[in-house]
């Protein structure tokens, strides 16, 4: 019922592509993704190589600046991250105003937006010096903001960053250390956390990255643009899926662990149940990130000596699904979220904090896209068209005559 002759783009033709499923909204040199083959590369480097050999800090540098850092660049980047790790003392008081039950994603986005009130120079996005300072500030401070949110929600005192620790070690320290007992950061957990953050660091034009680019296209400062991205990630259809997987596994466990029953339910077109953590809009092959995360899950469970019945249910679900033609015909494989929640759970991270961990990982990707866009001399504000489906022109009737 839409009259498409009424839609004119500046070059004459307007495409109608709801959800932008077939529209390349930008050109980008950051991430290559081939969903048919199951290939993911950041700046040309395979996700497998980066997860195996790089740290999250190196990967962040790679995504943001386009090249892996030299030793000197790496050291100076890490130093800068350490120097910017503290929050303004006034910002600490913001946490007092939130209820203990606050969702940490709301705290995260509000705090990141608030950074622009303490560093108004971030507004000068076109100034490369200010831009660089803002990037490093945000990368470092998001970690502190997240750790303080964790402490707030647990009613524990804030633990300040310890600058001799690596990025991930410092995060674990700020989240889990208590003033009353010594806390030793476990290097194996640091390694797994590095991997998890690397695997989530970018995924080309997903919903939150597109949001960051759209907001940034108005030349909005980095803090405000990323705050919008955090809100987009919060949605259950996006970053919230790892939480949904754990909740599904808990439900299956509570129901006696009958995996086949849930596989049949997922296949039943009269039921709204879907196998959470299975399938992907772009991957029509095994998600390469899921393979790496599955191995990491074994390592964490071994290391912590944890026997989690949910892991066994997850393994059984995967095995049963992948030997069923319903799933293989539709190319439904485990995605990145299928095992990541189980690892976070084993590390003692609560379910409603999973998406915060995802935000920490995705931050360098968001920054890389915001920077790529602002540095593009041909950039323009994002402003899509629409197909108008409302009424034709009508005559206004004053309120007194409307009856
Ligand atoms: N369980 C059972 N059946 C499924 C599932 C699933 N998880 N996923 C897709 N299907 C079926 C659909 O019913 C459909 O079957 P049909 O052709 O017989 O009608 C077919 O597979 C194609 O599914 P679509 O919904 O068209 O696939 P789409 O690309 O739109 O959706 C999505 C992808 C949303 C990820 C979907 O697979 C899903 O809902 N998965 C579960 C939720 C999830 O894990 N989300 C996280 C994604 S990763 C991320 O965002 C970080």
TrEMBL record:
Pathway: Carbohydrate metabolism; tricarboxylic acid cycle; isocitrate from oxaloacetate: step 1/2
Gene3D superfamilies linked: 2.20.28.60, Citrate Synthase, domain 1, Cytochrome P450-Terp, domain 2
Alphabetical list of InterPro entries matching this protein: Citrate_synth-like_lrg_a-sub, Citrate_synth-like_sm_a-sub, Citrate_synthase, Citrate_synthase_AS, Citrate_synthase_bac-typ, Citrate_synthase_sf, Citrate_synthase_typ-I
Known catalytic reactions: oxaloacetate + acetyl-CoA + H2O = citrate + CoA + H(+)
Top-rank lineage group of the source organism: Bacteria
Family stated for the protein in its record: Belongs to the citrate synthase family.
Protein name: Citrate synthase
Lineage start: Bacteria, Pseudomonadati, Pseudomonadota, Gammaproteobacteria, Thiohalorhabdales
């Amino acid at each position: 019922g839409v009259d498409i002759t009424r839609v004119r783009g500046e070059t004459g033709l307007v495409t109608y592509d709801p959800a932008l499923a077939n529209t390349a909204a930008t050109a980008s040199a950051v991430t290559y993704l081939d969903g048919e083959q199951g290939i993911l590369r950041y700046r040309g480097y395979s996700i497998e190589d980066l997860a195996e050999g790089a740290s999250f800090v190196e990967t962040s540098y790679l995504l943001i600046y386009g090249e892996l850092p030299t030793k000197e660049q790496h050291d100076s980047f890490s130093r800068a991250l350490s120097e910017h790790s503290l929050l303004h003392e006034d910002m600490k008081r913001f946490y007092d105003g939130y209820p203990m039950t606050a969702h940490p994603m709301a705290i995260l986005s509000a705090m990141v937006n608030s950074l622009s009130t303490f560093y108004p120079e971030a507004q000068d996005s076109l100034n490369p010096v200010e831009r660089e300072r803002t990037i490093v500030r945000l990368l470092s401070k998001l970690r502190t903001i997240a750790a303080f949110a964790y402490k707030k929600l647990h009613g524990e005192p804030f633990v300040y960053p310890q600058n001799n620790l690596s990025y991930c070690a410092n995060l674990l320290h700020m989240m889990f250390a208590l003033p009353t007992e010594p806390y030793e950061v476990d290097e194996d957990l640091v390694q797994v956390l590095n991997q998890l953050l690397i695997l989530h660091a970018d995924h080309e034009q997903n919903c939150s990255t597109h949001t960051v680019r759209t907001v940034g296209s108005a030349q909005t400062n980095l803090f405000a643009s990323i705050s919008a991205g955090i809100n987009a990630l919060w949605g259950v259809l996006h970053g919230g899926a790892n939480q949904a997987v754990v909740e599904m596994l808990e439900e299956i466990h509570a129901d006696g662990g009958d995996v086949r029953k849930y596989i049949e339910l997922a296949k039943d077109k009269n039921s709204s149940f879907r196998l959470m953590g299975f399938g992907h809009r772009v991957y029509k092959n095994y998600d390469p990130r899921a393979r790496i995360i599955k191995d990491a899950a074994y390592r964490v469970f071994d290391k912590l000596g944890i026997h989690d019945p949910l892991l066994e249910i997850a393994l059984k679900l995967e095995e049963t699904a992948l030997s069923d033609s319903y799933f293989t015909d539709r190319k439904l494989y485990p995605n990145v979220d299928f095992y990541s929640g189980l690892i976070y759970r084993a590390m003692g991270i609560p379910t409603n904090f999973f998406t915060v961990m995802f935000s920490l990982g995705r931050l360098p990707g968001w920054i890389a896209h915001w920077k790529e866009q602002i540095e593009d001399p041909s950039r323009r504000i994002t402003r899509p068209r629409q197909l108008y489906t409302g009424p034709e022109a009508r005559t206004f009737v004053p309120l007194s005559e409307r009856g």
